[in-house]
Amino acid sequence: ERGWLFWRAMECGRRSVDRKRQVILFILFVCMCQIGAETLRYSLPEEMGRDSFVANIAEDLGVPLSQLAARKARVVSEGNEQVFRLNQNTGVLTAKESLDREDICPQSDTCTLFFKIFLENPLQLIRGEVEIRDVNDNSPVFPEKEMVLEILETTSPGSRFPLESAQDMDVGSNGLQNYSLGFNPHFSLTTGTGKDGVKYVELVLQRQLDREEQGELNLLLTAFDGGSPPRSGTAQIRVVVLDANDNIPVFERELYEVRLAENSPPEQLVVRVAAADPDEGSNGKVRYTFTQTSERSRQLFQLNSATGEIRVAGNLDFEEAKTHKMVVKATDGGGLSAHCKVQVEVLDVNDNAPEIALTSLTASIPEDAPPRTVVALFSVRDRDSGDNSRTECSIDGDLPFSLTPTFDNYYELRTNAALDRESKAQYNITITAMDSGRTRLSSRESISVQISDVNDNPPEFTQEIYTMSVTENNSPMLRIGRMNATDADAGKNARVKYALVRHEGKEQPDVSVNAETGDVYILRSLDYEKVRAFELAVRASDGGSPPLSTQALLLVVVRDENDNTPVVLHPPPDSSAAGELNAWLSYELAKATEPGLFNVGLQSGEVRTARAVTERDAPRQRLVLLVRDRGQPPRSATATLAVALVDGFSEAHLRVSEEAPPADPDGPLTLYLSSAGSLPRSYLYDICFAAGTVNSEFRFLRPLFPCFPAGLPPGPGEQQSSVCSHDAANLGEEGD
Fold first, then answer.
1. Average pLDDT score, the chain
2. Is there a contact between 628 and 635 (Cβ–Cβ < 8 Å)?
3. What is the mean pLDDT of residues 579-585?
4. What is the structure's pLDDT at 569?
5. How does it sit in the membrane (predicted)?
6. Are 482 and 519 in contact (CB under 8 A)?
7. Residue 516 pLDDT level (bands cut at 50, 70, 90)
8. Is residue 31 a contact partner of residue 23, using CB atoms and an 8 Å limit?
9. Where are the beta strands (DSSP E) in 367-407?
10. I need a surface site. Which of 527, 548, 550, 696 has the fewest CB within 10 A?
11. What pLDDT score was predicted for residue 174?
């Protein structure tokens, strides 16, 4: 139920990310406080097949299946080996391989595997444990298939002889439970449990032996476990009856206790056991052997049979076993024996450095992330004990990050100050974990965190006021200078576009600013006698969302040149009212390739598109225009206009146009219209031709550059002073 409530809270939080980011942070804080508040517990029999079902995590947590994949649900087992697998599509937790309890938890009555379920966006952690239940898959086994006892024939009835105990790797009722002895007239069995919980078995002499009657006896010893059905193991007991030897060896102590550091080198002396026998000759000579001692202890320690010295033979590991118990048997030459116990306590040495395990990492965070934002989650583990296992974590250097302990041995890496990508765009963070041992060991983990850009810097012009000049009677589309602004942000947040600031109700000057480069163009020829200077505001906007902008003032000064002659204003020569009336003209479209694509102004003669150009329209359009006067009778004339529809201009278009042979003087006027939308549809283009112009080409290019670069002559068929372009509607609104 808590997982369902968490999911619902985060769903609500996502819908208002841009509105109230603080709400999400609050929810994340509450959820992080709940990490580790519950533990999932399951059990699984050992020796189950590969991919055996353990549990349905989605059902137990109450989390929809869609959320498992969306939140990158995964399972992490403790230790180096990953035991379990979580299917994000079904929510089922399975065991990756068949589990053998005896391999996983040797010499342990209980076997529990711990794991954690991690969910991201937001981060959630659930602890879990799986108990591996024992299955009766091991039979009791004796260390030796044959045990040899040498017993003096004078041994009194009731004497006890310890036997090698069977060992069963199973636990509980499946472990070793009882022994039985094959029928014989001399011996019986007795069993018991020592203080350490280990079952022992002894052979009890019931009837006096007689070597002359029977020098050797063979007995069958059987060990049973408590499984269903029970399993068993057997060993042969060969009893050799010896001649009289009336003294048995006696140890100085029944129990030898030793404390030994885990880093003790091989051949180091552990302890020397000693047993004395007052008999003479071979009956008084004692030899020592291990008995009732585990195989692992026999590998780690070696016993000198003659001296009783026990030395280190293998590598001791406190983390593997903290104590080792051994039984030493002293046997004299006559076959009499005695036993003592040796208990070695392994002392921990700081020989394991802390281990840092990164669980979750946010590789990139925005520069406006608030302090206390979680960047990473990791755990620290030290396999030593006591002070040697206590760890401290720190961050190298003076960085705007801090570490916060959460639960168990987990830490959160958080921001602790405001970030600024423009000052530093990437942090390489080194986390150091150090234990508290006398000789302190440490380990390091380095992570890289990128700071992503936020649009927090407006563009900045290099000048507050730009002053540019132009001589009157200039060529249309003349470049007079460039305005430049830069933005300290990155990516689209740093892409600057320029546009004229439009004022409602105020006529805009004949100026255009290239949106991409900031180049300033005069759209048409200026007249010093009409305007000598004008100013306007230019806005530089970045590509952020929302965009940030700044403005600069552009002052254009018009320079005068001697271009005016005296003019007689009135009366105009040969003027008459009838002549003016006959000169009134009307225009109409007589013929067109696509009749519905173009129309012509009745009084103005302006040719406009009547609808949007589509790919279905023919790329070349031919228009026949009819012009008629008001005379009696009226007179008319026609003109043919060829229009080429192209999807933007390329160097190939320009090259073909420039290399074409000179057009016939009486041929049609060719216009190139870009159907890709060179300029907004609201733009109005005025096309002007000097007197006597018969054939020419005019290209509507994007962006609007001057018709001819400054200082270069026009190409074939082009008129230096006959073409201009003017935006009569939205000048500067789009930044061109």
1. 80
2. yes
3. 70
4. 54
5. Single-pass type I membrane protein
6. yes
7. very high
8. no
9. 374-381, 391-395, 401-405
10. 527
11. 86
**pLDDT tens profile 452-484:** 989 999 999 999 999 999 999 999 999 999 999
Query: DSSP strand E in 73-122: where?
Result: 74-77, 84-86, 92-95, 112-119
Enter the tokens of residue 326.
């051994």
Phi, psi of 6 (to 5 degrees): -60, -45
Give burial (CB, 10 Å; 0-12/13-18/19+) of 355: middle
Whole-angstrom distance, CA of residue 120 vs CA of residue 129: 21
Asked if residue 11 has pLDDT above 70, the reply is no
Output 670 or 506, whichever has higher pLDDT.
506
Phi first, then psi: what are they for 530, rounded to 5°?
A: -100, -40
Neighbours of 67 (CB within 10 A): 21
348-364 pLDDT tens trace: 887 788 888 888 888 89
Token pair listed for 127: 């602890």
For residue 651, the SS3 value is helix
- pLDDT tens digits for 693-707? 444 444 444 343 333
**Torsion sign, CA atoms 179, 185, 187, 191:** positive
Prior bond of 713 cis (ω within 30°): no
**Residue 26 pLDDT greater than 80, yes or no:** no
Instruction: Calculate helix-pair angle for 21-33, 2-14, nearest 10 degrees.
Output: 160
**Alpha-carbon distance 164 to 142, whole Å?**
7
Is-contact 288 303, C-beta < 8 A?
yes
**Strands ordered across the beta sheet of 112-119:** 39-45, 124-133, 112-119, 74-77
Q: How confident is the model over 211-233, as a mean pLDDT?
A: 90
Name the CA dihedral angle for 79, 80, 86, 88, rounded to a multiple of 10 degrees: 120
Does the pLDDT of residue 711 top 70, yes or no? no
* Section 283-299 average pLDDT: 89
- The tokens describing 635, both together, are 């007179």
Instruction: Supply the DSSP symbol for 652.
Output: H
Q: Is the pLDDT of residue 655 over 80?
A: no
Calpha distance 147→684 (Å, rounded): 114
Task: Please state the rounded mean pLDDT for residues 264-292.
Answer: 88
Token pair belonging to 100: 């053998």
Instruction: State how far the Cα of 475 lies from the Cα of 720, in Å rounded to an integer.
Output: 8
DSSP alpha helices (H): ranges in 540-648? Answer: 577-582
pLDDT in tens, 166-197: 988 888 888 888 999 999 999 999 998 888 77
As a whole number of Å, the end-to-end CA separation of the chain is: 59
C-beta separation of 472 from 558 below 8 A = yes
What is the share, in percent, of the chain residues with pLDDT greater than 90?
34
- All domains in the chain, ordered by first residue: 40-133 (2.60.40.60), 146-242 (2.60.40.60), 250-347 (2.60.40.60), 355-452 (2.60.40.60), 460-559 (2.60.40.60), 564-570+581-649+680-700 (2.60.40.60)
Q: Residue 91 CA to chain centroid, in angstroms?
A: 21
- Of 516, 526, 529, the residue nearest 556 (C-alpha): 526
Checking DSSP bridges between strand 533-541 and strand 497-500, what pairing results, if any?
Answer: antiparallel
Phi first, then psi: what are they for 283, rounded to 5°?
-70, -20
Nearest Cα neighbor of 444 from 428, 455, 420 is 428
Q: What is the secondary structure of 430-498 as a DSSP string?
A: EEEEEE-SSS--EEEEEEEEEEE--S----EES-SEEEEEEESSPPTTEEEEE--EE-SS-GGGG--EE
Rounded-to-integer distance, Cα 376 and Cα 32, Å: 13
Average pLDDT over residues 193-213: 85
